[in-house]
Design brief:
- The protein is of the alpha/beta class and 225 residues long.
- It is 43% helix and 17% strand.
- It has a single domain, classed as TIM Barrel.
- The chain has 11 helices and 8 strands.
- An 8-stranded parallel barrel has the order 1-2-3-4-5-6-7-8, surrounded by 8 helices.
- Helix 4 runs parallel beside helix 5.
- The protein is globular, with a radius of gyration of 17 Å.
- Bound molecules: cytidine-5'-monophosphate.
């Protein structure tokens, strides 16, 4: 079965909270997601501190701009030593290709349709197709442009795994251990994500809001064994 890695989302307020987590999980959790909230406040110091604790960074800033600007951002991320970053496939084939063609760069993981959309709000953006067929087209576009992976909900893992070769990373947020009462709707357990063929699962609140974060991480890692 697939080797599935845990990425802990560093969705915390500031650098010192991030450092708390990193010291707690040093040597236990290898990958950390740095998102726009913490990065906007603290900048590259966050990435340095993950490295200081021996972790690897998934920089989740969801780039979407003209090709040259995104290419420069990818080069900057490479200078910071990040492992992987996210960019919007809807930025278009040219944007994706100039990034993918860089000799030295982080892994590029494509965002297709944000899971916060429903059909009605998605149609209002001007897309003519429904969410499922847009995702289908976007995933083809992303992989043929040279992306290394795709971010998707647990409900798309099976479809994407069938369509693409094993070396295309499937990265899955929306992971829950049991019933959770929050804004994630399309949820899946770590075990199920692994069975379906996810390469990475992204977990935030189930760990961050847990009464016993170490125990929760232990349970997740056990499910991924
Ligand atoms: O707290 P939770 O486990 O829901 O965290 C999931 C993380 O993954 C958050 O940082 C969220 O922004 C991110 N994410 C997501 N759904 C996507 C893409 C990213 O929940 N489609």
């Amino acid at each position: 079965m697939k080797n599935t890695e845990l990425i802990l989302a560093l969705d915390v307020e500031n650098l010192s909270s991030a450092e708390n987590l990193l010291s707690k999980f040093k040597g236990i959790v290898k990958y950390y997601k740095v998102g726009s909230s913490l990065f906007t406040l603290e900048g590259p110091k966050v990435i340095d501190i993950v490295h200081k604790y021996g972790g690897k960074v998934f920089l989740d800033l969801k780039f979407h701009d003209i090709p040259n600007t995104v290419k420069n951002a990818v080069m900057s991320a490479q200078k910071l030593g990040v492992y992987a970053l996210s960019l919007h496939i809807s930025g278009g084939v040219k944007m994706l290709e100039v990034c993918a063609s860089l000799d030295e760069r982080p892994k590029l993981w494509g965002i297709s349709v944000l899971t916060s959309f429903d059909e009605e709000s998605f149609a209002l953006t001007g897309f003519r197709d429904n969410i499922a067929s847009t995702m289908d087209k976007f995933s083809d576009l992303g992989v043929s442009a040279g992306l290394n992976g795709l971010v998707c909900s647990g409900f798309e893992i099976e479809m994407l795994r069938k369509k693409f070769p094993e070396d295309i990373n499937i990265v899955v947020p929306g992971i829950r251990l049991g019933n959770a009462d929050d804004d994630q709707k399309r949820i899946i357990t770590p075990k199920k994500a692994k069975e379906l063929g996810a390469d990475f699962i992204v977990v935030g609140r189930p760990i961050l809001k847990s009464q016993k974060p170490e125990e929760t991480v232990k349970i997740i890692l056990k499910e991924l064994e």
